[in-house]
Amino acid sequence: xxxxxxxxxxxxxxxxxxxxxxxxxxxxxxxxxxxxxxxxxxxxxxxxxxxxxxxxxxxxxxxxxxxxxxxxxxxxxxxxxxxxxxxxxxxxxxxxxxxxxxxxxxxxxxxxxxxxxxxxxxxxxxxxxxxxxxxxxxxxxxxxxxxxxxxxxxxxxxxxxxxxxxxxxxxxxxxxxxxxxxxxxxxxxxxxxxxxxxxxxxxxxxxxxxxxxxxxxxxxxxxxxxxxxxxxxxxxxxxxxxxxxxxxxxxxxxxxxxxxxxxxxxxxxxxxxxxxxxxxxxxxxxxxxxxxxxxxxxxxxxxxxxxxxxxxxxxxxxxxxxxxxxxxxxxxxxxxxxxxxxxxxxxxxxxxxxxxxxxxxxxxxxxxxxxxxxxxxxxxxxxxxxxxxxxxxxxxxxxxxxxxxxxxxxxxxxxxxxxxxxxxxxxxxxxxxxxxxxxxxxxxxxxxxxxxxxxxxxxxxxxxxxxxxxxxxxxxxxxxxxxxxxxxxxxxxxxxxxxxxxxxxxxxxxxxxxxxxxxxxxxxxxxxxxxxxxxxxxxxxxxxxxxxxxxxxxxxxxxxxxxxxxxxxxxxxxxxxxxxx
Amino acid sequence: xxxxxxxxxxxxxxxxxxxxxxxxxxxxxxxxxxxxxxxxxxxxxxxxxxxxxxxxxxxxxxxxxxxxxxxxxx
Lengths: 581, 74
Known about the structure:
The structure holds two protein chains of two kinds.
Chain A: H1 7-27, H2 34-39, H3 46-57, H4 60-73, H5 76-102, H6 107-111, H7 118-151, H8 155-203, E1 220-224, E2 230-232, E3 235-236, E4 248-251, H9 267-275, E5 278-289, E6 292-303, H10 304-307, H11 315-319, H12 322-338, H13 343-346, H14 355-384, H15 397-403, H16 407-444, H17 451-475, H18 484-505, H19 511-530, H20 533-538, H21 555-572
Antiparallel strand pairs in A: 1-2, 1-6, 2-3, 4-5, 5-6
Helix pairs in contact in A: 1-8, 1-16, 3-8, 3-14, 4-5, 4-14, 5-12, 5-14, 7-8, 7-16, 7-17, 7-18, 7-19, 8-14, 8-16, 8-17, 12-18, 12-21, 14-15, 15-16, 16-17, 18-19, 18-21, 19-21
Chain B: H1 11-33, H2 48-72
């Protein structure tokens, strides 16, 4: 669909960017120490750090991806939310306090605290970079693909804008400015999702909501011709002849017999009324011939109760095959184990004063992220029944839902969607900068540096990573990259979690064991992903049947593999000398 | 040992962790093995799939608060 862009959205976003960059320069006006650049002196208030956790963690994939998945497929998007949140339990109960006590600036500091081994620092720095770059690509590509419908600018402009803004945020005041940007973003995101949810409940459910045309349930065909022109139902696409917006209620529950709208609903009433309603969702099928690629969008009448149970998106669940179920279990395991292994999340533990502040800020983070995921469920369901959805673009579900209320709200939500990218990318660049400058240059290659030079080295690394991020964002423009976030969780969980957990719970762990577990966990999960059916289909454009892997998500195999490698290698190498203090 | 230098995970943390593993694993087990049970509607017309999902989010928060309070009170 062609979207009207809003000058107000551009204005709000520009004001936000100018505001946060101004704030960053102000925060960075004094000369900095390495402790300030990497860890904000460990002086961030626990509440600010907690909201910043949310700003760091809730990426564009969380906000737009989950809303879209719920709006188009129903319940399964909520399964992602449950998995994303559950990972924080591992972070709080198992990882937070030791990582705070053992490390100084980076995750490698903590893993290496007992051994002082360059091999460990090297392996962990590389796994940090791999995980952070896989996480970074979808953020940057997302920035580019969002900017066109939201702000009316070309893809590359979105990528460069985010890349430059984030690099400035990081090089001005490092972790101090990153923290504040994430705090502001986290607060705005939760607050405006709350406003949208109140509006959704206030509007209730309406039969054939949205603009005229949504009640028309004939299939729609979009044809992309070889020369790039687009036809809608055989005629050239224009503003007046475009795909009709979709996503409506066909029938309300019997208790509303004779009415076309429920009026305002309470939170549980809303869900219950939706379960008893009949809803029209749209699915896409594509085929190609000499005229071009045809995508047919067809309406499917569904019972609310069927949309609100698992299996709409994860076909492995509804098909009931063993491989499909293992694939799902593997993803849920990776989400559970991955959060506490993500370097850009872990470094936030070095910005608070002590273990008590680390605990308190995690609780605040869990509260903010948990509330956000509950609100996202309402946003997705509200979009599903708003009559405003673009059948070609699931990522537009949340902004278009906002548009069904007012164009001002659309502008605000568009600007916020875009700023979600800034908060997460600045966290990723910080993590990468620490891995390159602190772990590799300072510790592995042992380049002697004064404190001031350490900061400069970190900033140079941040600029380099910013440039790489922009290049990747433009290079991967035409790839479907949303699943790369899932890869990042799998690789983080497979490479980092076994080493971290065994270091804490098994005194026999040796440095060779840690190096082997990190290396094998990373290579095995990465190799599995590159050979998986998902990658064959979505990246190489081959048939998924050619893949040698039994299912696509590696975590179920590669996380235990990491533990096993660590135990075997540790037992084969000499017992570590007791250096515990 | 002073709280700020504690490099070990507390026993309470581990107990709460395993409680949550049971809740999360139990829920995922239902999704995988008995998805039909999730259509049951125990909560004012809201089905078990939604109710238990929200329950898992609430449980994470409640256990986290419990942990924070218990550790602060040592």
